[in-house]
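F.,

This is the one I mentioned.
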């Protein structure tokens, strides 16, 4: 089990591409900086002593730090003055912020205007939204189910993906209702917030891992007890919020340009919920489409 948990943790780690790092001397200070933009003006940066620090490198290989000093309680916006000088005031710095993307976009745009061969690298992330429905069978492995009975369930999901990251990363909001049956008088309606990582991600097929890290359940159960021939029935209604970290796997199979058949094997295990003795039997099939 520990190996499985470690595997899933690795799969769910963010795999954002890291910028190249090199060591530079800046005014007698040795710094390891990441190269974010390369052109007529270069943008270098890193997190140093828990603070973001940004630098520009000119064509003469001079490295200058971009600062926003504070004097008499007011920010001086030194970085705007410096960039105005370096770009000959050819671009407005009125809306320029001392943040990585804002600086990257500014310098990237400047490089594009002064060098026709320059290839732009600054792109705003685009989000894609998908809506889906599904249905399946579950043995509800995290509740007492001595006979390992399965019950139907159905639900819907709203998924948000990052298109510029090739849709590998996604978050989702899921609604699921597990129905009651005569042999297992238990039902629950669950709202869950989760994260998804597609470790195989093709245009026609993707395979991914899920983790539901926050759930809100509205459950109903009927407990029948036999005490020396006296049968008693008691009904329980419970509302519970958990941070269970429930793991599962799934796949999307593309059927049209904007729609997919989904297959899922859910509730394999949870980090913060105990399995009640039954290995997970939780399968679903569904359909989702791009909004």
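My design for it:
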């Amino acid at each position: 089990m520990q190996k499985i948990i470690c595997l899933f943790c690795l799969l769910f780690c963010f795999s954002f591409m890291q910028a190249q790092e090199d060591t530079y001397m800046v005014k007698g200070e040795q710094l390891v900086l990441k190269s974010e933009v390369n052109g007529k003006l270069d943008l270098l940066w890193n997190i140093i002593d828990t603070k973001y620090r940004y630098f520009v490198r000119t064509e003469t290989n001079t490295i200058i730090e971009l600062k926003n000093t504070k004097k008499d309680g007011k920010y001086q916006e030194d970085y705007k003055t410096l960039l105005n000088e370096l770009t000959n005031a050819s671009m407005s710095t009125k809306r320029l912020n001392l943040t990585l993307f804002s600086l990257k976009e500014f310098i990237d745009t400047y490089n594009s205007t002064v060098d026709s061969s320059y290839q732009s690298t600054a792109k705003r992330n685009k989000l894609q939204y998908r809506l889906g429905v599904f249905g399946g069978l579950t043995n509800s492995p995290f509740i007492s189910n001595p006979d390992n009975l399965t019950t139907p369930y159905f639900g819907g999901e709203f998924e948000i993906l990052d298109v510029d990251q090739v849709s590998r990363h996604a978050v989702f909001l899921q609604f699921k209702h597990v129905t009651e049956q005569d042999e297992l008088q238990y039902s629950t309606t669950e709202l869950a917030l989760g994260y998804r990582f597609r470790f195989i991600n093709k245009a026609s097929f993707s395979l991914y891992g899920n983790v539901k890290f926050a759930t809100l359940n509205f459950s109903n159960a009927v407990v029948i007890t036999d005490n020396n021939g006296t049968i008693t029935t008691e009904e329980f209604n419970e509302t519970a919020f958990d941070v269970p970290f429930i793991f599962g796997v799934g796949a999307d199979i593309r059927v049209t340009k904007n729609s997919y058949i989904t297959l899922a094997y859910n509730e394999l295990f949870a980090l913060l919920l105990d399995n009640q003795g039954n290995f997970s039997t939780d399968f679903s099939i569904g359909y989702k489409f791009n909004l």
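The chain has a mean pLDDT of 87.

Talk soon.
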